[in-house]
Design goal:
Bound molecules: glycinamide ribonucleotide
CATH topology: Rossmann fold
Helix content: 25-40%
Strand content: 15-25%
Largest sheet: 7 strands, mixed
CATH superfamily: Formyl transferase, N-terminal domain
Oligomer: single chain
């Protein structure tokens, strides 16, 4: 079994889509949900799917051990960022080389970087009069929204779109494509590549 952890910051709709997709999956199991906020909906999502959840403290995550011992204890071999807004510390990048994926609600390299999350991304897409937007699933490195692109899907931007209506269209694409992309990405790496460093 390939054991993965989800890191989320609140809404939890991608976490829910991922947990549904991998329920009873023969090769991949989501074993932990880690969230950086108190009282976020994603804790209820974890409970619904009977998956353990933890709250991350900023100090330990960013300036301490990055919770690596917790991930190691649960034999986690990859991290899935699903609406997670903190930067990933180098202790985790080094422990999980090429095994951390993120989803961004736009077509990177445009409309990414620090502070570009949630509705701000869609506001920027509309302000730039783009005719299409979409999603980017990419490997995570030390910089925001910077690693190699693994998958992109496109959708139109309609003339009367608001940031909210565009967000809804993009979120549907996320739910549709993130789980199978995670599946392909992690099952195509051999088991030996997935052992912990
Ligand atoms: C998603 O649209 C995700 O792409 C975005 O936050 C939302 C989380 O929704 N992430 C970013 O903007 C990261 N830069 P969710 O909590 O319902 O899955």
């Amino acid at each position: 079994m390939i054991r993965l952890a989800i890191l989320a910051s609140g809404g939890g709709s991608n976490a829910d889509a991922i947990l549904r997709y991998f329920s009873g999956h023969p090769q991949i199991q989501i074993v932990l949900i880690a969230c950086n906020r108190e009282a976020a909906i994603v804790y209820q999502v974890a409970e619904y799917h009977c998956v353990e959840s933890i709250q991350l403290s900023r100090e330990r995550f960013q300036a301490g051990d990055g919770y690596l011992p917790v991930f190691q204890d649960k034999q986690v071999s990859g991290l899935i960022l699903a609406g997670f807004l903190w930067k990933i510390p180098s202790v985790l990048i080094e422990a999980f080389p090429d095994r951390i994926l993120n989803i961004h609600p736009a077509l990177l390299p445009k409309f990414g970087g620090q502070g570009m999350y949630g509705l701000r991304v869609h506001e920027a897409v509309l302000a730039a009069h783009e005719t299409e937007s979409g999603i980017t699933i990419h490997r995570v490195d030390e910089h925001y929204d910077n690693g190699d692109v693994v998958f992109q899907a496109h959708c139109p931007v309609n003339p009367h779109d608001t940031p909210n209506s565009l967000a809804q269209r993009v979120l549907q694409l996320e739910h549709q494509h993130y789980p199978p992309t995670i599946e392909n990405y992690f099952t195509q790496q051999t088991n030996s590549e997935l052992t912990l460093n």
